[in-house]
Specification:
single chain; about 1000 residues; 5 domains
Amino acid sequence: MTNAAAMATNTAPQVTRPGLLMLLLVMLPLATSVAEALDAGRQITQLGHKAWRVRDGYFNAMPSAIAQTKDGYMWIGTHGGLLRFDGVRFVPWEAPAGSKLPSTNVTALLGARDGSLWIGTQGGLAHWAGAMLTTIPAERGPVTSIYQDPDGNIWFGQSTVPHSTGAFCQVVDAVARCYPGPAGTPRRHVAAITGDAHGVVWAGTESGVLRWRAGAMDEFPTSGTDDYVGGVQALAATPAGTLWVGVPQGGPNLGLQQLVDGEWKPYRTAKFDSSTLPVTALLLDEEQTLWIGTASEGLYRIRGDAVDQFRAEDGLSGNLVYQLVQDREGTVWAMTSGGLDSFRDLPVATLTGREGLTMTEVDSILASRDGTVWVGGADALDALRGDRITAIRPGSGLPGHQVTSLFEDRAGGLWVGIDFGLTVYRDGRFHPVRTREGKPTGLIVDLTQDVDGAIWAETTGETRKLLRIENETVTREYPSPAMPAARRLAADPAGGIWLGLMTGEIARFRAGRLETFSYWNSKAPSLDNAVTQIHVEPDGSVLAASPLGLIGWRAGTRRTLTVGNGLPCDRIQGFVSDLEGDLWLYMQCGLVEIAKDQLQAWWRTPNARVQPRVLDSVDGVHAGFAPFVSAARAPDGRLWFINGAAVQMIDPARLATNSVLPPVRIESVVADRKTYWPVDSLRLPAGTRDIEIDYTALSFVAPQKVRFRYRLEGHDTQWQEPGARRQALYNDLKPGTYSFRVIAANNDGLWNEAGATLRFSVAPAWYQTNAFRVLCVVLGTLLLWLIHRARVWQVANALSARFDARLAERTRIARELHDTLLQTIQASKLVADSALAPSADPKHARRSLERLSVWLETAVLEGRAALNSLRSSTTERNDLAEALRAAAQDDAPASMEVAMRVSGAVREMHPIVRDEISRIGCEAIRNALRHSGGSQLEIDLIYGNDLRLRVSDNGKGIAPAVIARGATGHFGIQGMRERATNIGGTLSFVSTAAAGTQIELIVPGNIIYERPSRQARAASG
């Protein structure tokens, strides 16, 4: 089968070596790295590993190439196209409208330094820069690798190219220029291209290696590679000029080799011979650690003389490795036949059986003063010294099966609890510790040594006991319940020991006296409450760990540290301080660091909140449960923890921080289920309701720990905290212009404050335009004016009805007075007049009748006066001005000059209103004449849209208190105000001692003026 046919059918590689290698020749470019290196002191299995497998549906076709562009995205080439990867989502890439790739089968990728992407395909090379896709004219052939030299030149290799110039090519002025070998013989297969910082370009061919230097070409053939199927497949250049060369067709003098000063040298160690290794990919990371991808054996890594391997059995997505690259954060990526894998440093390293630990159950740990880390568990006691692990097992020195506890005394002796007894490991042998009766001590859960040198041990079983041991013999036993059941012990520098109790309390035992300190109000012993570790500082401060939180005791002061103080959870398995004094808590939710200054603040203030650094499973922490001591600090500062199944280690002094700011990108805007690209000043159509903004941050160390903040200016008043969510959702945004800003922090909390910004606008619908709003305002104003007019008309009609009712009542009273009272008085007068006629007693009768006549005459005059007063308004025409003038003339003193003016066309008004206005005016005039003491009085009656009556004098004015409340015992001003209110008028007073007083009455004309209909009715009546 030809290579082209194999790619066209898109079938899996054949198992046979030649068919497999033909596939590799087309699919394996080599990329260089410019990032932080992984820790070479750890095995591959101790690195953070994640796999995206084809079988899990991450890829639409088999992946074949990978590269990172300057903007931070990872690009994945597959047999079915190109994918963009942000660490969370694989997004298919689409060519710009009107253009397409030479082939959808992507075989090589390069992220250039200018930010563009070079795309090698089965049909040729393409260049994508911004929104423009350019195809590089060349003879059709699958592109195997792409390289950019220090001067920015682009080089690429092709495979199975039958042209005369060869498959080693350079892009010159957007055209491919290909070069033959040194003797002019074309090379038909170039599977790998790389270079060094000195401008040397290396190319791996079917028969060896080409070197391009300053325009000249040299060739270094390899033996046994006459057939192109076995040609050089992978290259990696060191800064010193050494070239690592990989050949997938293993055999004598093949496999992995080095080209040093033109000489071939195979790589061999005492335990590793790479000459038969089927090498398909090479990568030198920043620490010059060599990563090797193979055709069938997975992944290797060479660190000096140390070699370790990682296969599909260990979790690799496939044992056939196509390509290796390292991104700018230091993560190593491996493209395999089964998918994509990433490897990164973890803050916490894990040690299990894969790394040499000899036990599957880990129960206790101890870091001795000589640097040895002792690990005890089921059927083994392991000693970790540097990179070596040695084990003492049953049958080879271990006197039992279960190592339960470990302790080092001040003399350097190692105390080991094994099964149901206690031993001292000395001179390569275990010496048993027994009671005075010669019996085993029982199962030991913890040990300590007091200031006097005595060893104290806590046992468990049917009866818990506290043991005091001297000279490797138990001298005193303190059984429960006299001595409360404990789980952890610690020596007090002032004498005695501290006990961490099963109840979650702590106790101090000194000079035969027991003192207990309660914290959680727990009384029943329970593993759910038991203290898991206790430690005493040289100053006497006590710290104890429990499932309920951290306990503190210092000079009688008690402290508790829980989630209420900022801890991420409460359950603490163990703890240890580092060399800087920071406290590390091994908890169910991870490994938590509390800085020394925060811990001191907690000692000073019980409610102080801490801001801990939390390392979780993403950082390599796999907290579990260990029944015995689970934390220790080695003399070199490394911290060791156990979780029941493995040993975990962190080195605070080498705890690297990811210093790469995560690039932030806004990827798309989805408005009402329609996708828009985030162009500058994006305009969304009118009526847009639901808006989704998709954004991302390109950090691949731990994408799930990337945190975001965003804010929509014009809508959000403060930053939103979505956590790791990469979408912002809005609905019912008002029309207008908005600016969306998003920032992100990487896994170590380093924020990219610049972030990304998108400006967009939402167009208004017709009912949301300013013109529509103005129209609504106008119509609303008109409606309010109509309502006001209707109300005024209603009030006017109501007042008119009231006036008509009052007029009718006055007419009725006048008629009654005329028809009854006046007639009776008139008749009485006639009788009295008759009595005045001559009679028997003329003097007496006459005097009486004269008096009666006077009184009756007076009654008649007063009755007629009242009658005229009630009926005059109903019968006389508009005489308001005359009435006011008469009032002024009748009472005016000789010293006051009175002026009366009438302005405007005189209009008829309702008689009741005219009477009320007349009475208000007359009252104002009389007050001015009698009380002002002025020399001038002016009366203005103005007919306009409204009726105005103004009475002004130049007298001494009225006191403000009198204007506000009236004079005591007088009701003139109060009556004027009441009359003005009754007719819907406004009465105002302006008075000063220097300028006199002005009283003004304003009555709305639409209320008091007669309408034509009323005038017609008056004329007809």
